[in-house]
Amino acid sequence: MKIGVPKEIKNNESRVGMTPAGVFELTKNNHIVFVQSTAGDGSGFFDEDYRNVGAIIVKSIEEVYSLSEMIIKVKEPIAEEYPQIKPHHILFTYFHFASSEELTVAMLKSKAVCIAYETVEDTDGSLPLLTPMSEVAGRMAIQQGAKYLEKPIKGRGVLLGGVPGVPPGRVLVLGAGVVGVQAAKMAAGLGAHVTILDTNMKRLRYVNDVMPSHVVTEFSSEYNIRQHIKDHDLIIGGVLIKGSKAPKLITREMLKEMRPGTVIVDVAVDQGGCFETTVPTTHENPTYIIDDVIHYCVANMPGAVPYTSTMALTNVTLPYVLLLANLGWENACENDKSLAKGLNIVHGKCVYKEIIDAFDWSENHLVAEI
Ligand SMILES: NC(=O)c1ccc[n+]([C@@H]2O[C@H](COP(=O)([O-])OP(=O)(O)OC[C@H]3O[C@@H](n4cnc5c(N)ncnc54)[C@H](O)[C@@H]3O)[C@@H](O)[C@H]2O)c1
């Protein structure tokens, strides 16, 4: 198969869909790989590294798309990429369709096959291609939150770990999934007091078993959230309802209950955000303030640490890329049910129910059973 790796053009996105190690595996399997020049620079992989393992370096994004059958990316295509996407293309990347009707309609119109990293699902319900980025984002949420708590950037002026004689900062984590657990682990490592909430008791039992005693678990209810936002310095939103928009756990009116300078980091922003006041931001301009509460809502947090993120992502995507390249998308999805769950749009039809629900679309209109 002919496989294309374009350079990411979303704001401040320096990750790349494939490392030279991935190209090596594909060319060993007799596939042809086109890599856009400088696509890997931001992650520390240069044209020469790709050329050395058999990639063909092409200059423009137009060449990558026109020469390739399958496109391997990191982020969803942005508007200027839409015209490049044709019905014969397979796109394998993050899409997060439920949070953008515009993107969903554009991909339906393209008639391409869109396989979303974030909905590839193992038999135990875990999301193997979301996990590494959630691990990165969960850890980064504390690093960023700690920084924005500093007074010169309008935070409360709290040092998360405290010092001898002064209590540590308090971190509230909403969701005890991958993001939540990694955030709790980092915050606990800094010495902060951590409260972590979830509706899933199994997750809370797990967290309770593995975390130190200054990480406290509680059931996630509106009442509990309302109590905790009053005295926590840093609030991390890490909830997920698979394929759907995130539930709004913190409303605009609740911001008034927080202390001035509280920092809220909505990691779930890519699914619409779990705070009512969430608006997606970029690494260039990551924060804004409403009612004296600092909002950090960067939709591609791992993009800021591309070296770590590219390696972590491609470690898990490569086996699926090989399967798709070796068998074609239909046979690959037939043989691997986890991969089949990644099918979101197939030749103009939306085949993932939660996306249709997210937009209140009629099933007859857009769903095809495959
Ligand atoms: N901004 C970024 O750069 C970035 C990067 C990676 C992941 N994410 C996003 O972070 C979010 C979390 O990802 P994850 O991998 O941790 O998901 P996950 O499925 O591992 O965890 C989500 C958790 O949320 C819990 N939950 C659901 N409803 C809840 C509620 N009302 N109250 C409390 N908890 C609730 C679930 O029980 C689950 O444990 C996703 O939206 C994901 O797309 C964003």
From TrEMBL:
* Enzyme Commission number(s): 1.4.1.1
Alphabetized InterPro entries for the sequence: Ala_DH, Ala_DH/PNT_CS2, AlaDH/PNT_N, AlaDH/PNT_NAD(H)-bd, NAD(P)-bd_dom_sf
Residue ranges of domain Alanine dehydrogenase/pyridine nucleotide transhydrogenase NAD(H)-binding in the record:
149-297
Annotated GO molecular function terms are:
alanine dehydrogenase activity
Mind telling me which PROSITE patterns this protein's record contains?
ALADH_PNT_2 (PS00837)
What does the record give as the reaction this protein catalyses? L-alanine + NAD(+) + H2O = pyruvate + NH4(+) + NADH + H(+)
Question: Where does the Alanine dehydrogenase/pyridine nucleotide transhydrogenase N-terminal domain start and stop, copy by copy?
Answer: 4-137
- In terms of superkingdom, the source organism counts as Bacteria
Q: Which UniProt keywords apply?
A: NAD, Oxidoreductase
What SMART domains does its record include?
AlaDh_PNT_C (SM01002), AlaDh_PNT_N (SM01003)
Family assignment from sequence similarity: Belongs to the AlaDH/PNT family.
Give the protein's recorded name: Alanine dehydrogenase
Q: Which organism is it from?
A: Flavobacterium aureirubrum
